[in-house]
Amino acid sequence: MTNVKVHSVAKTYGTTPVLSDITTEFPEGSFTSLLGPSGSGKTTLLRIIAGFIKPDQGVVTIGNNDVTDIPVWGRNIGMMFQSYALFPHMTIAQNVAFGLERRGIKGAAARKEVDRALEMVRLPGFGSRTPKQLSGGQQQRVALARAIVIKPSVLLLDEPLSALDRRLRQEMQVELLRIQRESGLTTIFVTHDQEEALTLSDKVAILDKGRIVQIGEPEDVYERPLTRFAAEFLGDSNFLTGTVDNGAVRLADGTVVRTTSTLPTSGSKVTLAVRPEKMSIVSGPTDDNSLTARITTVIYAGPVLSYMLETADGLPLKLFAQNRDGKVLSDGDTITLSWAPEHTVPVGD
Amino acid sequence: MKPLGRIYLVAILIFLYTPILVMMAMGFNASPLYELPFSFSLQWYEALWSNTVLLTAGLNSIVIAAITAVLATALGTMASVALSRRTFRGRSFLQLMLLPPIAIPWLITGTAMLIFFYWSGIGRGMHALLIGHVALAIPYVVLVVGTGFRTIRADLEEAAMSLGSTPVHAFFSVTLPLLYPSILGAALFAFAVSLDQFVISYFLATPGYTTLPVQIYSSIRKGFTPEINAISTVLLLGSMTVILIFARFAKPGDTRDKR
């Protein structure tokens, strides 16, 4: 078990900066997701840690070793690829044994390790098959077995589940988490699937334009996004803009919105983020923050109803409600919605 | 549509193979002037057996084709690795410039080679034939192997490297085995290009060292005997066997993706 550190790592392709000055730490045994849109630099960061890409500047350490100048084959990493990348001309057992052989483990000792790894991914007895005879999910399990059988210092996952269908993906998520917990491997997981990032990780790092915008526990990042981008990329969010006035925020239409978070000084402009599921439709007066809005669309999604709303000022809002009584409100109805001050989070741009 | 298609296919095969079958049959006909009625005889094969000029030329052809296949496949595969897996200045230009030699008429290529070889002191003879054939075969090899490369994902080598392989080991343990059918196909292609080659060989051969197509051509000019049919039949059966073995084992056109 080892921790992984990157220190002021930067990478530029031509004149395009892909990563600018990334410094962060992946603690021993933790599961960290790198979450961001395509082009945010998350894959580049993973490939720098793997050793496929050499950073222009900065230092990568695995354990206590500076590995910045060590190529990928000398780093003892386990990696899973989006396309599984199983060797098609080898059997499952040969695939899993590949890394062992590179480490001088052969014969009976290797067979024992291979069997144990295949058991761990719940594919015992599959050793003599070829990758072609396996389903996508099974191939991905083999790829995982191949990556962990060498007892890597760090497990790097490059969107390994994105090629699987939804059901299989959820199954693999559970499996991946179980194996990560059992093996205690420091794991870094690149994904653009926010739900996946929240479910799996101890820590989520949100990347945008080559920078880590925010890193923290999933709940922390979700409940208290630091920037508008973080609030928008991880989950849905409503944004209200106004001016700080006497410890609260006055919106353009005069509505006063309170928050439990610290606000900048009076008179400054501020953007507040409110999650759509924190808002609720109320019938009577309330002590919480409230607004009136007109329903533009109701989306019936089974357990949840999504209301698309618009205030008198034309500000679009979203509200998610549990489907308790079915679809009782319809398009064009005017409603009062409310939410608690503690769910009102000021965000930077 | 189905019976029509079948008739069409059969017609194509008839047009392709009838002349060849007639040629083969006449090798077993006793008449030196290809006269009918047909009377079976092995005399032309016996005559061929003592015709050292034709036999030597046939052997030369096979030797040249074999060496060409080995050299062109090795050089072409290496070029293909660079063109498919590396990025460097002028890569797309080089890739593009591989195609024109295939389209340039052999007569022009042959003339150019003759002039160049004469001017540079390379001259004519076996070595000149080899250089010419290898140069001619390389573009085919690069094309065939390059197509093979496109079916192999680059992340397979990355996976091998993540497991501890150096790039060289990753290439030999992962890419090469997957590329093997393409390389074999390319070698056969190079072999066939060399064996078939007449125009360039005609220019570069010397009276003392010729290949079979050149020898057949000069024999025909002197008036020919069914010995030509006999050696053609032997050569044809030989190369067809090789092609069929390849088709059986390497399954060209196999669309399995190599992920």
List the keywords.
heterodimer, A: 349 residues, alpha+beta, Rossmann fold, OB fold (Dihydrolipoamide Acetyltransferase, E2P), 5-stranded antiparallel beta sheet, 8 helices, 20 strands, 24% helix, elongated, B: 259 residues, mainly alpha, MetI-like fold, 2 domains, 12 helices, globular, disordered C terminus
Topology:
The complex is a heterodimer of chains A (349) and B (259).
Chain A: E1 4-13, E2 16-26, E3 31-35, H1 42-50, E4 57-62, E5 65-66, E6 77-80, H2 92-102, H3 107-120, H4 136-148, E7 154-158, H5 166-183, E8 186-191, H6 194-200, E9 203-208, E10 211-216, H7 218-223, H8 228-233, E11 238-245, E12 248-251, E13 256-257, E14 269-274, E15 280-282, E16 289-300, E17 304-311, E18 316-322, E19 334-339, E20 345-347
Parallel strand pairs in A: 3-8, 3-9, 6-7, 7-8
Antiparallel strand pairs in A: 1-2, 1-4, 4-5, 9-10, 11-12, 11-14, 12-13, 14-20, 15-19, 16-17, 16-19, 17-18
Helix pairs in contact in A: 2-3, 2-4, 3-4, 4-5
Chain B: H1 2-26, H2 43-50, H3 52-85, H4 91-97, H5 100-103, H6 106-120, H7 126-150, H8 155-162, H9 167-196, H10 199-204, H11 212-221, H12 227-250
Task: Describe this protein's structure.
- The complex is a heterodimer of chains A (349) and B (259).
- Chain A folds into two domains: 226 residues, 3-Layer(aba) Sandwich (Rossmann fold); 112 residues, Nucleic acid-binding proteins (OB fold (Dihydrolipoamide Acetyltransferase, E2P)), CATH 2.40.50.140.
- Chain A is 24% helix and 34% strand.
- Chain A is built from eight helices and 20 strands.
- In chain A, helix 2 packs across helix 3, helix 3 packs across helix 4 and helix 4 packs parallel to helix 5.
- Chain A starts with a strand and ends with a strand.
- The relative contact order of chain A is 0.12.
- The model of chain A has no long low-confidence stretch (mean pLDDT 90).
- Chain B has 259 residues and is mostly helical.
- Helices cover 76% and strands 0% of the residues of chain B.
- Chain B is built from twelve helices and no strands.
- Chains A and B meet through strand 6 and helix 2 of A and helix 8 and helix 9 of B.
